[in-house]
Amino acid sequence: MYVYFSGFMDKQKMLTYLKCAIVISICLNIYFITITIQGPIHKCPQTFCPDNWIGYQNRCYYFSKEEGDWNSSSYNCSTLHSTLATIDTMEEMNFLMCYKCSSDHWIGLMMENNQTGEWVNGTVFNNWFPVRGGGICAYLSDDSVATARCHTERKWICKKNMHHLI
């Protein structure tokens, strides 16, 4: 492309504009190359539990300070948009046993004749840990899972999924 400039000042201006255009072009190229190499920036979702809940493995747990029978404990969990705690892994069992301290706490398991059981979420209990006692409603005792009459007053543990912020 041929451009005619009259006078020295026009050539100086043209050189200045040309230098600026080259610098801007180089900067834009570096920017786009950097973005292309790094790929898109994804924000990791942040998770959190409500106040007075404890987070563990993408779940939130509420350990009550008050006591109630199994049915009122289950109802109290539902008012908190949760259920009585189900236990899916040995790690989760260890966490609950450690965190509850020495108090007995209702959990979301009901047994029939100490043979078969069902979790409050509808999952069949597969006997992967022993349950002692002759009752129907399950609770975490000092060192194991036990059953008792459902009208006995105990503390309880609620469980729900963590909230996600994006």
- β-strand amount: 25-35%
- Please state the second-level CATH architecture of the largest domain: Roll
Rg calc: 32 Å
* Low-confidence runs of at least 5 consecutive residues: none
Category by helix and strand content: alpha+beta
* Whole-number total of structural domains: 2
Percent helix, as a range, is 25-40%
CATH class of the largest domain: Alpha Beta
Largest sheet: 9 strands, mixed
CATH topology of the largest domain: Mannose-Binding Protein A, Chain A
Summed up, the helix count is 3
Number of strands: 11
Helix and strand succession? Answer: HEEEHEHEEEEEEE
Head-to-tail CA distance between termini: 51 Å
The CATH superfamily name of the largest domain is: Mannose-Binding Protein A, subunit A
Average pLDDT, all residues: 82
Overall outline: rod-shaped
Can you give a write-up of this model?
It is a single chain. The chain is α+β, with helices and mostly antiparallel strands and 166 residues long. It folds into 2 domains: 1-42; 46-165, Mannose-Binding Protein A, subunit A (Mannose-Binding Protein A, Chain A, Roll), CATH 3.10.100. Helix content is 31%, strand content 27%. It is built from 3 helices and 11 strands; from the N terminus they run H-E-E-E-H-E-H-E-E-E-E-E-E-E. It has helices at 8-38, 70-79, 90-99, and strands at residues 46-48, 54-56, 59-63, 83-84, 105-112, 116-119, 131-132, 137-140, 145-148, 155-161, 163-165. The strands form 2 sheets. Strands 2, 3, 4, 5, 6, 7, 8, 9 and 10 form a 9-stranded mixed beta sheet that branches. Strand 8 and strand 9 form a beta hairpin. The model has no long low-confidence stretch (mean pLDDT 82). One of its GO terms (cellular component) is plasma membrane.
